[in-house]
C-alpha cells in the first residue's frame, strides 16, 4: 500500500501542478487516462427510437503479487430522461489491451458486449430492455468554475491562472503551493485564520488519479464549515450517492444525485451554510443547515446537521468558527476559495 500511495501522490502532484495535458474541447482527452471519463450519445432499443444516453467509465486497476498492473475499467451505462438519469441499463467490465477495452457483462448480463476505442464506446445489451449504445467521450466543466468573487467577498485562496497563490488566510503554511495557482493538501488539516458564521462559500477542488485505490482511500478530503460540519470530497465518479461519498454530509445526509466529474477534473462546491439558531441566553434553538451545489447541480437542499460530523476538529455549538479543509492523506488540490458573509 505504501508503494501505491507514493506512486499515486507523485502522479497527482504532476497533474495538479498544471504539467499534465491541458483541458481541451468536448470529445478530447485532457487526461493521462484516455479511457476514463464521461461518454454521451444515444441508446437505441430493439424496435424503438433512439434516446439520449450516457456512460461513466471508471479506472479500477489492480496490482498482482508480482507487481503487475491489471488495467480494468468499469462502464456504467444509463439512458437519460427529461429530468436526468434513467435506469441503469448495464454495467460492463473490461481490461485495456492494445489501446482498446473489450467490455463484457456478468451474471444475467453475461451476453452483453461492448468496446471502448478512439474515445468512443459502443455496446450491445442483450435481454429484456436491450439495445445498442453509441457514445462519444466528452469533457465537462462546472458552470461556476473560475467564478470571480463579488465585491466585499472574503478571499481565502486567491486564484489567477498560472500564478502561484498564497496561504496568508490559512493557519497551516506547510501545504504545497503549485505553479498553476492551486495548492495541494499536505501534512495536517488546514484552518482559516478568520472565523465565520452564516456564509456563501465557493471552493474549487481536484481529486487525484488513483486507479489502484478504492473507497475512502481514493482522493479523500473534506470541507468543514466552522471546523465542524463536513461536506465530503472523494473520487466517487461512477458510484451511487451515499453520505460518505462525494457531496455527502458525512453520516448525516445523502446527496440527491452523484454530480462528480472524473478524477483530475476541476470541480466546484457552492455551499450556503447557516449556523445554529440561538436564543438570547445562548441556548440552541435549531440545527445548522447546508445547501450544496456540486458542479452547478443542487445535491443538498437546506440539509439539517444536528451536531458536528465525524472527524470534526472542534465540538459544540458556536456562532462563528474557522473553515477547515481536511488532510486525509491524499494529494487533493484546491484553488479559488472565497466566501460572502451572510450575517453582516
Care to describe what's here?
- This protein starts with a helix and ends with a strand.
- It contains 1 helix and 24 strands.
- A hairpin with a 2-residue loop joins β6 (84-97) and β7 (100-104).
- 41% of the residues are buried.
- It has 2 domains: 24-138, Lipocalin (Beta Barrel); 154-341, Exo-inulinase, domain 1 (Jelly Rolls, Sandwich), CATH 2.60.120.560.
- The protein is 5% helix and 43% strand.
- The chain is globular and about 65 Å long.
- The chain has 344 residues and is mainly beta.
- The strands form 5 sheets. Strands 1-2-5-6-7-8-9-10 form an 8-stranded antiparallel barrel. Strands 11, 12, 13, 15, 18, 21, 22 and 24 form an 8-stranded antiparallel β-sheet that branches.
- Number-wise, the strands total 24
Widest β-sheet, arrangement of strands: 1-2-5-6-7-8-9-10
Extract low-pLDDT stretches.
1-30
Structural class: mainly beta
Can you give the helix content as a percent range? under 10%
Give a quick precis of the structure.
The protein is mainly beta. The protein has one helix at 2-19; strands spanning 37-45, 51-59, 62-63, 69-70, 72-81, 84-97, 100-104, 113-117, 120-125, 131-138, 154-157, 176-177, 183-184, 190-196, 199-206, 221-225, 229-233, 266-274, 277-278, 284-286, 288-294, 297-305, 321-325, 333-341. Helices cover 5% and strands 43% of the residues.
Amino acid at each position: 500500500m505504501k508503494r501505491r500511495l507514493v506512486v499515486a501522490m507523485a502522479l497527482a502532484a504532476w497533474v495538479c501542478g498544471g504539467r499534465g495535458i491541458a483541458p481541451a474541447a468536448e470529445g478530447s482527452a485532457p487526461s493521462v487516462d484516455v479511457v476514463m471519463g464521461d461518454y454521451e450519445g444515444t441508446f437505441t432499443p430493439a424496435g424503438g427510437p433512439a434516446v439520449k444516453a450516457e456512460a461513466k467509465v471508471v479506472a479500477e486497476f489492480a496490482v498482482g503479487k508480482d507487481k503487475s498492473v491489471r488495467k480494468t475499467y468499469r462502464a456504467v451505462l444509463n439512458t437519460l430522461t427529461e429530468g436526468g438519469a434513467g435506469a441503469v441499463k448495464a454495467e460492463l467490465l473490461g481490461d485495456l489491451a492494445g489501446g482498446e477495452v473489450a467490455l463484457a457483462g456478468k451474471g444475467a448480463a453475461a451476453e452483453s458486449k461492448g468496446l471502448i476505442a478512439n474515445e468512443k464506446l459502443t455496446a450491445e445489451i442483450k435481454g429484456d430492455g436491450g439495445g445498442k449504445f453509441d457514445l462519444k467521450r466528452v469533457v465537462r466543466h462546472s458552470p461556476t468554475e473560475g467564478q470571480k468573487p463579488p465585491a466585499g467577498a472574503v478571499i481565502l485562496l486567491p486564484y489567477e491562472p498560472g500564478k502561484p497563490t498564497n496561504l496568508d488566510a490559512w493557519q497551516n503554511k506547510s501545504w504545497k503551493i503549485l505553479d498553476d495557482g492551486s495548492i495541494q493538501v499536505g501534512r495536517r488539516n488546514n484552518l482559516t485564520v478568520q472565523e465565520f458564521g452564516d456564509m456563501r462559500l465557493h471552493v474549487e477542488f481536484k481529486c487525484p488519479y488513483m486507479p489502484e485505490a478504492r473507497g475512502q482511500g481514493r482522493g479523500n478530503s473534506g470541507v468543514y464549515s466552522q471546523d465542524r460540519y463536513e461536506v465530503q470530497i472523494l473520487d466517487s465518479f461512477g458510484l451511487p450517492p451515499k453520505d460518505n461519498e462525494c457531496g455527502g454530509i458525512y453520516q448525516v445526509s445523502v446527496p440527491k444525485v452523484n454530480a462528480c466529474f472524473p478524477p483530475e477534473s476541476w470541480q466546484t462546491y457552492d455551499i450556503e451554510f447557516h449556523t445554529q439558531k440561538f436564543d438570547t441566553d445562548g441556548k440552541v434553538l435549531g440545527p445548522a443547515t447546508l445547501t450544496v451545489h456540486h458542479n452547478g447541480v443542487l445535491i443538498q437542499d437546506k440539509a439539517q446537521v444536528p451536531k458536528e460530523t465525524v472527524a470534526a476538529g472542534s465540538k459544540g455549538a458556536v456562532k462563528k468558527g474557522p473553515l477547515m479543509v481536511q488532510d486525509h492523506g491524499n494529494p487533493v488540490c484546491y484553488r479559488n476559495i472565497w466566501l460572502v458573509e451572510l450575517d453582516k
